[in-house]
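Technical note accompanying the year-one report. For the benefit of new consortium partners, we illustrate the data format agreed upon in the data management plan: each record pairs a sequence with a C-alpha cell string. No post-processing was applied to the example shown here.
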Amino acid sequence: MTSDGSARRGDDLVENLLRRAALGDMVRRQAARQGDKPAIIARSGSGNRRVITYRDLDRFSNRVAGGLARLGVGRGDLVALMSHNVAEAVGVYYGILKQGAVFTSLNPSYTPAEVARQVDHSTPRMVIAGPGMAGRAGEGVARARGNPRLVVMDGTPRPGEISFSEMLDGVSEEMPEALVEENDLAMVMYTSGTESVPKGVMVTHRAMMISTTPSWSYERYVEASDVFLLLAPVYTMAGTGAVTNLISMGATLVMIPRTEPGAVLVAIETEGVTNTSQTPTFYHRMIRHPDFGWRDLSSLRQAHVYGGPIPFGVVSELSKRARGVTWATYWGQSELSQLGVIGFFRDPSEIPERDSRWIGRPTPHVEVRVVDESGADCEVGELLCRSPGVMEGYYRNPRATAAVLRDGWLHTGDVVRLDSVGNLFFHDRLKDMIKTGGMNVSSAEVEETIRTHPGVMEAAVVGMAHPEWTEAVTAAVVLGRDAGVSEADLIEFCRARLAGYKTPKRVEFVSDLPIDSQGKVRKRELRQMLGDRRRSRPPGERV
C-alpha cells in the first residue's frame, strides 16, 4: 500500500461497486443499456429544443462529479443548486450524487436574505447558481455567515467566484472513483414552507432505490416508455423525485422553462407527451386557455394530479380532448421520499363513492394507520405511515424530527378517512383545520363548496382570530370575469350547502391567491394578507 493509503481506497471502491445501491449509478446503467435514447428534451421559450441522450447525461454528470472533486467536494458534503428547470440542473444533480456528496436546492425565487438564511442552515460546501441566478445567489452567499464556494453557470464571475465552464474544464468524462453507500444521504430537500419556516428533509439513496421508484413502477405510475412533461420545479421534492424515478426507469423527460398552460399544450402536442403531473388549479387553468380547444393532446396517456381534489368538470373537459386518458391521483410527502398513495380512474363513476377527495390506496412499500387524538385507530383521523421511504429526519432540527417520527410511525399531519377496503380520502391538513365555536371545520370542504359556484375561479379558506368564535371561517375568492357576485351572495350560497358553523363569516375578493411554485396556497401568507385587509377597512365597516 502507498503512503497515502490509495491502494486501500482502491480496494474499498472495488468492494463498494460490487453491490452498492446508489442513485447516480442508474444513469451509468441506463447509458449502457440505451445510450442513444433521449433522457431529456429541453425546450426553450422560443421553441428551440435540445435532446440530451442517456450517454450525454452520463458523461456530463461524470464531468460535474470530477469538477466538484477537483474543488474539494467529497463524500457527505452538501452542494446547493439554485436553478429553474433546465437540463443542466439534472446533470448537476447526478454529478453531486456520483461524487458521494449530498444534493440540496435553493428556490430560484428567493431573495438574497432568504438565500442567506437557508445557506446558514444547510452550510453547503458549494453553491451552484443556474442560468440567471448569479446575482441573487451571489448576494445571498455574501450575506451568509459561512463561506461556501460559489459557481456560476452564466455571466462573468466576481472575485472569489468560479465559472461553471472553468469547473468542468479538462475534467474526464469517465466514472468518478467515489465511495457511495445506500444509507448515505442523497439529498436534503426543503419543504415548501406554506405553514412554517422550511425544514430540510434528509433522504438516503436507499429510500428512493428500494421504495419510491419500485412502487411507482409496480403501480405503473411511470413506465420506461413514458415521455414525461416535468412541470414540478427541480428545487422541490416533487421535481427532484420525479427526475430520479423517471431516469431510474429509463424514461424521457421533457423540460420547459415556465409552467404556463400555453407552453404545456404546445409541448404535449409537439413532443408526444404521454403523462404529466400538476395540481387541480393548473389543470383548471389549462382547460380555459384559448389554445386548449385545438391542440392535439391525443398522446396523453395519464394525467397525474396532486394537492387537492380535481373538479369533475375539469376531468370531463380534458378527457374530451385526450380520449383514453387515465387520471392518476397522488398523495405523498417530502418526509416519505414522495412515496405514498396512488389511485387511477378514467371517469368520475370509477371513483369510490364518487368522492372527489379520494386519493387512492397505499403503494406497495407503505403501511398506513389512521388514528384519533389519543392514538387509537379510527375511520377519520391523522394518517400515519411506515415505509423504507421515510426520511432520516429534519436536517439539524431534532425537535421537529421527534414531533413527527413517533412510536415507529411517520405522523403526516394530514387528516384522512380510511374505508374498509383500504381507500383513502383526504380531508384536510391538521394545521388547516379551523376551530370555531368549539367545532372543527375542514377548510378543504368549505373550499370545495365555494368552488362549485359558477362565478368562482379559485378559493382558499383559513381560520382568522376572532374574539367570539376563537377562529372565524374566512374565505379568499378569485371571481371569474364579470361574475357579479357579492360577499352576501357567496355566504348565502354556502349556508344552503353547509352547516351554519362551517359557513364563512367573511369573504374577501382577491385578484390572485398567494401560491407557491407547485400551485399550493401559501396559507401563512394568506392569513397575513387577510389580516392586513381587515385592519385597512374603514371604521364601522363589517368584517
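Partners are asked to follow this layout when depositing records. The longest strand covers residues 456-466.
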